[in-house]
Amino acid sequence: MNELARRTGCTPRMIRYLRDQGPGRVRAAGQRVAESAVDQVIRIRTLLGAGLTVEDSRPLLHCFSESNRPVARPALAAQVHRVVEDLDRQEARLSRARASPMVLLG
Predict the structure, then answer these.
(1) CB under 8 Å to 15, separation ≥6 — which residues?
(2) What are the backbone dihedrals phi and psi of residue 91, each rounded to the nearest 5 degrees, phi first?
(3) What is the DSSP letter of 9?
(4) Other beta carbons less than 10 A from residue 2's beta carbon
(5) Residue 30 has what DSSP assignment?
(6) What share of the chain is helix, strand, coil (3-state, %, to 5)?
(7) What confidence score (pLDDT) does residue 29 get?
């Protein structure tokens, strides 16, 4: 597990979470780490970095090339659009929340 964490830049805690709960259940046993486990963690980290949740990542692990670069596929595009729409809603909500206290100042 520590080897997988070192090779992917994740914490051992994240590796344990991905092993127990993550998409595809990352296999990280023993000292030898399969390249497929490294690839899977890199792909999950890429998706998390783009704003997707671990659960959202599950059906999208196949949307990568052999070099772990995202490949534009309908499933990935649809999920990315959902993330952007969600961020737009959050931004609008925060803008309204920011304006509310300013009313008190006149």
Answers:
(1) 1, 4, 5, 8, 26, 28, 41
(2) -60, -45
(3) T
(4) 11
(5) S
(6) 65, 0, 30
(7) 54
Q: What pLDDT is recorded for position 78?
A: 93
Task: Give the C-alpha separation, 33 to 17, whole Å.
Answer: 17
Three-state secondary structure call for residue 16: helix
Cβ 75 vs Cβ 60: under 8 Å: yes
Beta bridge partners of 64: 70
Question: What CA–CA distance (Å, rounded) separates 64 from 104?
Answer: 50
Cβ count within 10 A of residue 36? 11
CB 12 within 8 A of CB 5: yes
Residue ranges in the chain modelled with pLDDT below 50: none
DSSP secondary-structure letter at 61?
T
